[in-house]
Design brief:
Elements lengths: L4 H19 L2 H33 L8 H27 L3 H36 L2 H10 L14
Helix pairs in contact: 1-2, 2-3, 2-4, 3-4
This protein binds fe (ii) ion (2 copies).
């Protein structure tokens, strides 16, 4: 299993949230956004606390792969997320199409930003973490990380 598999699952969760939004089920859309938020925050926390220190210590000097950049992007992602949450909250009070469109506009920016961040992680960060860790360390990392939103069927192993 890939350590970054959760990226696809986060995308899927956000897609489900937007689907409910378009269907007009604003309550369900909000609940799915909450699920997405919790999973995303947990994922970024794990990257920051478990993987980034390791990356900072061992990774090669890769153009566009400075560890501070990943941290800064996480902060920006949080800012966008807060903005979206405010709009989603407003939608409960004013459930009209104008508010839905404003929310979708903000979400489009958010998605672009996350897509850019995820792409750099998939292309630079995770391959580099993979390169600088031993097989034993990979097993240990896989145990530490919630790398999938699915409940594990058997003990986590890479
Ligand atoms: Fe990240
Ligand atoms: Fe990530």
């Amino acid at each position: 299993m890939e350590l970054n598999q959760i990226h696809h699952q986060l995308d899927e969760l956000f897609f489900q949230h937007q689907t409910e939004l378009l269907k007009g089920d604003y309550l369900r859309a909000k609940a799915l956004l909450k699920t997405f938020e919790e999973a995303l925050l947990n994922h970024m926390k794990e990257e920051e606390e478990i993987l980034l220190p390791l990356y900072r210590e061992r990774a090669a000097n890769i153009r566009g792969g400075n560890s501070d950049l990943f941290n800064a992007e996480h902060k920006k992602i949080l800012e966008w997320l807060n903005r979206i949450k405010l709009r989603a909250h407003r939608l409960q009070k004013f459930p009209d199409l104008r508010t839905v469109i404003s929310l979708l506009d903000d979400e489009a920016h958010f998605k672009k930003y996350i897509e850019h961040h995820t792409l750099r992680e998939d292309r630079i960060f995770y391959p580099e973490v993979d390169r600088v860790t031993t097989p034993q360390e990979k097993i240990a990392l896989a145990r530490l990380l919630t790398f999938s939103l699915d409940p594990p069927s058997d003990p986590k192993c890479p």
